[in-house]
Predict the structure.
Amino acid sequence: ITAATASGIAPRCTGMCSAWATIRPRASNSAAEQSRRSLMFEEYALRTSAVPDILDQDGLSQSAVEIVARGPDGRPMRGVPVRAEITVNGVAQDYGRLSSRNVVTGDDGVARLTYTAPPPPSEPVDTFTVVTLNLTPIGADFAGSNTRFVEIRLVPRGVIIPPNGVPVPAF
């Protein structure tokens, strides 16, 4: 399959749904090539969620992340592999833990993983930290992948204090 084969990718979404990835492969004279292409490029929707979406930043709190894959007819799609990565402020980093970085949807079209919050900061100052989980379907062409995002807000536990400046001695 050439780059021209996968160039006809057009996202399609209405309302609150996840993005549809519609693949329109170029015409081919070979029935075998068309068959191979139909197995590699399928139309599906991924819906993602994280519950709860606000966690205590205590090193223990967890959020259940669910990825649901549905075909164009609404039926569950099994065997859809998805890669999970953590970013904070657009920078990829391991801020907290994922139970797995690679998951695959089961017979029910659902893949699950768990995000665990990082340890608490040294001072309980709320810096409005938002962790973004990037969920990317693994397929035949990364350029054609539509990454889905789930955001989880981290809050310090206990009494939240305002940020301190540099201590200045006053005598």
Observations:
- The first strand starts at residue 9 and ends at 12.
- Residues 31-40 form the longest helix (10 residues).
